[in-house]
Amino acid sequence: MTTPDTKRPIGISGLAAYIPPYRVWLEDWCGWTDNQWPKIREVVGRSFRVRGPNHSVYTMAANAVIRLIDQYDVDPTRVKFLGLGTESSTDNSAGAIIIKGMVDEALVARGKPPISRSCEVPEFKHACLGGVYGMKGAIRHLALDGAGGQAIVVCADIAEYARGSSGEPTQGAGAVAMLLEEDPQLAVVDLIGSGSASDYRIMDFRKPMLRFCGQDRSESHQVQDFPVFNGKFSTTCYIDETLHALHDMYEKRELNPSKYLRSLRNVFMHRPYRRMPETGWAVSYLFALSHGNGEDRAELASYCYEAGIDVELMLEEMLTKPEVARFADPERLNFEAYPLTMAALRAFRASRHFRREILDKMKLGSDTMLDLGNLYTAALPAWMAAGFEQALEEDSLDVGEEVLTLGYGSGDAAEVIPFFMAEGWREATQKICFGDAMQFAVDLNFEQYKALHDGRHVTDLEYSPNNEFVIDRVGCHDERHFADLGIEYYKYIG
Q1: From the centroid of its chain, how far is CA 87?
Q2: What is the pLDDT of residue 4?
Q3: How far apart are the first and last CA of the chain?
């Protein structure tokens, strides 16, 4: 009996993206909706993308996958794992196999072989963490029965919120595909040194099927996939799960938290909007100081002094590990789980240390992300793709350097995973072409935005799909001899 060689490093060799062209400028949106642009710019970003009339999560995912194959000259016969991470699927049976079908058809039409018939095609769902779980699944596959092959994981989502809701300015749409293999060219992924956390939070952010009852789709096949969410509570959950996942990693690697966080130069996190990762990382830094030496405690005490709070009381608060789920009722949703810590955070934001320890560590790719909105599962790999391209331009990453990533999914779960830059990261980054994927945009006016958002037909959009998959039609038969009701049919426009 032979066992697979699990000692070879496994990680990411390539990234490719598909971003729909339809763009809403948030300054325009503020004018349409009577919101404050300075606040939206500071907290959220500059713009977001909207799916088009012939887009679904499957077409966007297939577009990202075919671009990955093209940009990295992937041999489809070597791909033995094709995973989809999404929370926007519209089929409760099929998933990644739909993407494989589209990609195979396009490859064969080009005279190329299809993806391997022995390819596994799982779909991963856990809110925005589905893509990270897909990546972990792919790495485990490559370490065991898939050794010697390649894996592709595509993160694709459509983040839509009801017009007039607090989540509306944080919308977005897009897909990012990752190529994984042994001896990776871009970055080695260290699952052994990663940290995990999960806890059931009831009503943080959910998508119950009951939302679809009574939807009028007479004008469009588009399903309105608006989430049920509680914004303040969601922020609390994000922070708390981040803290627990980091703690798990600290213990596994026997790390000094404050020393470790200071040693990092670059961090990528799940990014629903601009302010969220900044807050999550800053609170994590304050918690790390609480476990540090005298100098660390003195720095923490200075923030408490500026905030007018007792440092000992805050330290006591940090040790309580509150049960966040107990805030999941209408009377307590706006309560702070860590009120003193959040007060100290406001003082920390005003200090000279905040830029060095927080903003500077998140600067790679952050400007690009201001124009993407929330991509759910694709938010983290999109930020990494944009960040690696900026690092290549600035030559600001070293071979072997650790880059920390943190994925999060509402409901709740978090994963903290160290990446180590591979020797060939510069050559691999040259092929990402993330900037190119975002280059073309169609700026929407208010009427066009409303029509696309509501799933209505728009006649004056200046865009013709090219070299991409689109929905050709949607089945409408529900008869005894033939049924295809709701099934999407696709075509590749070359």
Answers
A1: 11
A2: 44
A3: 48
Give the domain extent around 189. 10-196+433-493
Residues in the chain: 494
- Per-residue model confidence (pLDDT) at position 1: 36
Average pLDDT score over the chain: 94
> What does pTM read for this prediction?
0.95
Q: Is residue 235 part of a domain?
A: no
**H or E stretch covering 67:** helix 57-71
Mean pLDDT of 150-178: 97
Strand ranges, E, within 78-206: 79-85, 123-124, 150-159, 172-182, 187-189, 195-198, 205-206
With a CB cutoff of 8 Å and minimum separation 6, the contacts of 54 are 465, 470, 471, 472
pLDDT of 476:
92
Q: Work out whether strand 150-159 and strand 79-85 pair parallel, antiparallel, or are unpaired.
A: parallel
Distance CA 359, CA 350 (A): 12
- What does the block give as tokens for 438? 């975002």
Helix (H, G, I), strand (E, B) or coil at 45: coil
Q: Quote the Cα angle for 8-11-13, to 5°.
A: 115
CA–centroid distance for 228 within its chain: 19
Q: Are 102 and 82 in contact (CB under 8 A)?
A: no
Report the C-alpha gap between 177 and 65 in whole angstroms: 6
Q: What percent of the chain has pLDDT over 90?
A: 84
Judging by DSSP bridges, how do beta strands 10-18 and 172-182 pair with one another? Answer: antiparallel
Is residue 118 one of the residues assigned to a domain?
yes
The residue that leads in pLDDT, 19 or 223, is: 19
How far is it, in rounded angstroms, from Cα 117 to Cα 394? Answer: 42
User: HSE on the CB side for 97, CA within 13 Å?
Assistant: 8
Which 3 state secondary structure label does DSSP give 83? strand
If you ran DSSP here, which 8-state letter would residue 325 be given? G
Contact 47, 171 (CB under 8 A): no
Q: Which CATH number is 471's domain given?
A: 3.40.47.10
Q: Is residue 217 part of a domain?
A: no
| Helix 130-143 / helix 379-394 crossing angle, nearest 10 deg | 70
364, 266 in Cβ contact below 8 A? yes
Structural domains of the chain, count: 1
Q: Is residue 34 part of a domain?
A: yes
